[in-house]
Amino acid sequence: MVNTHTFLLIAVIAIVTYLLRSLPFLVFSGRKTPAFVTYLGKVLPYAIMGMLVVYCLKDTTVLSWPYGIPELLACIVVVLLHLWRKNTLLSIAVGTACYMVLIQVVFKTA
Fold it and tell me: What are the backbone angles phi and psi of residue 86, rounded to the nearest 5°?
């Protein structure tokens, strides 16, 4: 049986998420989208991806074994695959799988 508190919490989260995602459509319905919002729509995905790359690589140790080699190889796989196939989800999925194989099998430290 689902706890009432849990159910209410999930319901509130779902409603707030729905309202936040529909807000731009409600605000700009029937009007031209401002240039600033269009600009943000173009540049924010790249900024967010850059921030995620920095966040993912921030704890990489390059002064001890394996010297960041798994991270570097996985990044190269992601970049090359994305340049070849132009598919973000495929690039991220294969890069993640490549990284996991590298750290669990190839560069296993324990």
Answer: 55, 40
Q: SS3 helix, strand, coil % of the chain, rounded to 5? A: 75, 0, 25
Cβ atoms of residues 98 and 80 within 8 Å: no
Q: What are residue 88's phi and psi, to 5 degrees? A: -60, -50
pLDDT digits (tens, 9 = 90+) for 11-43: 999 999 999 999 988 888 888 888 998 899 999
Place of tokens 């960041």: 68
Give mean pLDDT, residues 64-83.
Answer: 94
Q: What tokens were used for 6? A: 């849990």
State both tokens at 48: 């967010």
From the list 42, 47, 53, 60, the residue with the least C-alpha distance to 91 is 53
- Sorted by where each begins, the domain ranges of the chain are 53-106
